[in-house]
Amino acid sequence: MTGQAQAIILGIETSCDETAASVVVRDQSGHGTIRSNVVRSQLDEHAAFGGVVPELAARAHVEWLDHIIAQAIDEAGIDLNDIDAIAATAGPGLIGGVLVGLTTAKALAASLDKPLIAVNHLEGHALTARLTNGVKFPYLMLLVSGGHSQFVLVRGVGDYERWGGTIDDALGEAFDKVAKLLSLGHPGGPAVERIAQQGDPKRFKFPKPLLREERLDFSFSGLKTAVRLQAEALAPLSDQDVADIAASFQDTVAEIVGFRARQALQKFAEKFPGEAIRLVVAGGVAANRRIAEALQKPCTELGADLIVPPIALCTDNGAMIAWAGAERLALDDTDSLTIAARPRWPLQDEDMRVKSHGT
Ligand code: KG4
Ligand code: ZN
Hints:
With 359 residues, the chain is of the alpha/beta class. It contains twelve helices and ten strands. The chain folds into two domains: 6-133 and 312-352, 2-Layer Sandwich (Nucleotidyltransferase, domain 5), CATH 3.30.420; 139-308, ATPase, nucleotide binding domain (Nucleotidyltransferase, domain 5, 2-Layer Sandwich), CATH 3.30.420.40. The protein has a five-stranded mixed sheet with strand order 3-2-1-4-5, sandwiched between helices. Strands 8-7-6-9-10 form a five-stranded mixed sheet, with helices on both faces. The longest helix is centred in the last third of the chain and has 33 residues, at 239-271.
């Protein structure tokens, strides 16, 4: 909140396959600065398995987290004692990894006698654009990552409304599965995008599930099956076949996402007449240029601002957790050391509300 002193926050993220720590400073006016942002991806550990193996992920977090935190403190040019609060992802995510990060944060908070903030990972994504672009409330967020695909209305810290999401696979997951069936490796998104550049996006007409329905939901599993059936029908695939399938798949999802974004923006405009319309994109799939293009179109047509934070801050990182912690600390919303890690934790949960605002 404005008028409060500057705060130095350590943020810890371990909910999936990135071990990350960051130091962020929030000044009196609510402006944030990233002092360090260290991310160690476990891609190599999981590559052979074609996806994230939870037990391996947890072990790698155990092995690396202390070093990553030390590096983040060091690169920020501060001392552990300079930290005003420790924020860590408490869910949703792979529970073994979340436990490693949250328990470490509790130990630091106890030994330094500083407050702990247990951050919802999705809130970290939701608030990042305020750190990077100073975006004002309210805004619409589209989160498209390996684990989530959803539209969220962000009205304030802790004040979220889910407007729709995937009923089966997340968008990044669909990219990863298509990449796997085309033998393009993991993670699939960047590989599909690369190979799609050589392909004909109009060669195959894939289904766009749910699009006739009004609701702001996605379904990608039928599309993935259609891609598999097409690949099987053409087997053995030439390089051109692979590129054409990748391009046609990518174009189909871009159209789906662009179509839904237009609906969501219209809903936002109706709900907040006279308010600037803002669409914030988060999650790894935000790196995809074809999808960014498909999002830009309705934004331009409806006079909305499209805000895409730098891609390193769209994917999982510690700065987004530190920043969400800073926003909550400014509202005096800290957590007890007994708070539990949670594998599932929807953004619109009761306990997401800022405590001092609750009653
Ligand atoms: O946000 P993120 O780093 O991790 C979480 O899932 O939390 O997102 C990773 C996902 C993966 O599924 C990856 O394939 C996808 O984002 N992705 C992409 C691209 N880059 C990453 N999908 C499509 N096009 C890309 N260029
Ligand atoms: Zn994430």
